[in-house]
Fold:
Amino acid sequence: MANQFGRMPGGMGNIMKAMQNAVQQAGTLETELAGLKLEAESGGGMVKVVVTGKGDLIEIKISKDVVDPNDVQMLEDLVSMAVRDALAKASALREEKMKDMLPSGMGGIPGLF
Structure:
């Protein structure tokens, strides 16, 4: 039997169930991303940065060879480059994982994430 909108009863229940499932998947994804570690480096490996898949900075390693008290700007630049690269990797990973959660065909919507 159709309701006043021409749809069968229970359609709203299916939508709510799908929304609950999506929320649960998002929570699982957040946990998964928090456990992933992504590394980036600059200066030929002189500066290494580790972030989680969520984009949380968890580690910076700096080689003694790159520490020059007379050129602090170079060290700052190397750290900045490594952090930006690591965060870009985390962002790309999050976006890819979120697209995988979407129903078929919705992952290609520009600006969705």
Q: What stands out?
A: The mean pLDDT is 83. The first strand starts at residue 37 and ends at 42. The radius of gyration is 22 Å. The CA atoms of residues 82 and 93 lie 17 Å apart.
